[in-house]
Design goal:
single chain, 3-stranded antiparallel β-sheet
Length: 457
């Protein structure tokens, strides 16, 4: 039986039956006849090459959860058989007929009824699933564009990987909305044409499939592409693991549906069991991804510290990494006396994208007997005014800041939050730069001048 059957992924606009008909006729001329039209693969069997005519029709009341053609479908098929049309396969509302006559009488002769059948089927096959997908992508996109902390918003917009993820989600949202919009435009134009006594308009599947395939490829490249360059081959392994687990999930869902239909259960039974099974598969898939696939995700190696300072406590030893990075503002600049016994760590972490350059600075004090305060601050350079305003608004809500006089800081705007222990947090705007500053003690006028001089661009 090797070579007697083949499976092919048939990609076409679901409302463009003409494109699929021409494809099936071409396959028949090559000696391959359709045996079963499933989702997503169609099965063909080897046969003598022949000039056959195929017709694709839609039966809106049918469902993918039907174990086989319904009674009404079989009655419809009997009428078609009288004109020489044999039903080859049915999948949900989709029905495929074949005829070996050279010029058979068309199954559908009333364009209005044909359009109504297509639209009824597309509500199930296209508008409902793509609408649900669009809602998922939109919610995901809005959640990522509206983070709940200043750290999250800067981390997102200063990361090329996060921006690529946002691009992938936006493209997938565009793909779902585009499919629905494209169909609805075709439907409305076709309805006007039919009302004027004409026929349904052609759909031109090929250019649209090329466009949709391109969008999908770009989205997948944006989603997984950055991992491909991870060292040690872990990036490629991670991509393969993600694709493999997703394929297994889809195969499991499709296999479950085939099993249910082979058991000749009712539509409601098949639907209920399938939904329950899909939920279980989703949970299993999530566990596999979280526990297994993410273990393969390439991780950035932590930056080595200049030295390690060890402190002995009653609970055991504690190790602190001491960094010696250059900082624009230090405790020494603010007039504090810093000695080696204070074991200060000067750390700088930068993350840059085309939208934001975010730098985190810290001077931590690890000396056991040190009385020095710690100093932490961030700078975010944001050349895009709309994004800078968005980040400022989000960051200003994080600690319930209050507007204060910017003049002592020589800033465009200044927000301040006072802690109960004397600590203070500040938010400064210097042109295109936002500065977030944490001080354990209230600054003097001299210290305010130094902070302004060292942190503004």
């Amino acid at each position: 039986m090797i070579g007697k059957k083949k499976r092919r992924l048939v990609w076409y606009l679901p409302w463009d039956g003409t494109y699929a008909e021409r494809h099936l006729e071409k396959m028949a001329r090559k000696g391959w006849r359709l045996e079963n039209a499933g989702n997503p693969f169609w099965i063909y069997r080897r046969a003598e090459p022949a000039n056959l005519r195929y017709a694709i029709t839609y039966f809106p009341t049918a469902s993918v959860f039907d174990s086989g053609p319904t009674g009404d479908q079989m009655t419809y098929a009997d009428y078609c058989a009288a004109a020489g049309w044999e039903m080859v396969s049915a999948y949900g509302p989709l029905q495929i007929f074949v005829n070996d006559r050279p010029n058979p009488v068309p199954i559908e002769t009333d364009e209005g009824e044909k359009l109504a059948a297509i639209h009824g089927a597309m509500k199930k096959m296209l508008l409902l699933p793509d609408g649900a997908l669009a809602a998922v992508w939109l919610v995901n996109l809005l959640m990522r564009l509206n983070p709940r902390s200043y750290y999250s918003i800067l981390s997102t917009f200063s990361s090329n990987q996060q921006l690529l993820l946002l691009l992938a989600i936006a493209l997938l949202l565009l793909l779902s909305l585009g499919m629905m919009g494209d169909y609805l435009v075709w439907y409305l134009r076709s309805r006007r044409a039919v009302e004027r006594g004409g026929a349904c308009l052609p759909s031109h599947t090929l250019p649209r499939m090329i466009f949709q395939g391109t969008i999908l490829a770009i989205a997948m490249a944006a989603l997984l592409g950055p991992f491909a360059y991870a060292s040690g081959g872990r990036g490629l392994l991670f991509i393969l693991a993600v694709l493999a687990t997703a394929s297994l999930f889809l195969a499991g869902a499709y296999g479950l549906l085939r099993l249910l239909k082979s058991m000749d259960g009712s539509r409601s039974f098949n639907r209920g069991v399938y939904i329950a099974g899909a939920v279980v598969l989703s949970i299993l898939y999530t566990v596999v991804v979280v526990k297994g696939v993410t273990a393969l995700m390439p991780k950035a190696e932590p930056r080595a510290s200049a030295e390690v300072y060890t402190v002995e406590t009653e609970w055991g030893s504690r190790n602190y990494g001491i960094y010696r990075d250059d900082l624009p503002l230090t405790l020494e600049d603010l007039g504090y006396m810093v000695t080696e016994a204070d074991h200060c760590s000067y750390r700088r972490e930068e993350q840059t994208s085309p939208l934001v350059r975010w730098v985190q600075y810290s001077q931590y004090v690890y000396g056991e007997d040190s009385v020095l305060p710690e100093l932490t601050y961030d700078t975010a350079d944001i050349p895009w005014a709309w994004l800078r305003e968005r980040c400022w608004e989000q960051m200003s809500q994080y600690f319930n800041f209050a507007e204060t006089d910017p003049a002592p800081w020589e800033a465009d705007r200044t927000l301040q939050w006072d802690g109960s222990t004397g600590s203070r947090r500040y938010l400064f705007l210097y042109g295109e730069r936002i500065v977030f500053l944490f001080l354990e003690e209230a600054p003097t006028a001299e210290q305010m001048a130094v902070i302004s001089s060292n942190l503004r661009p």
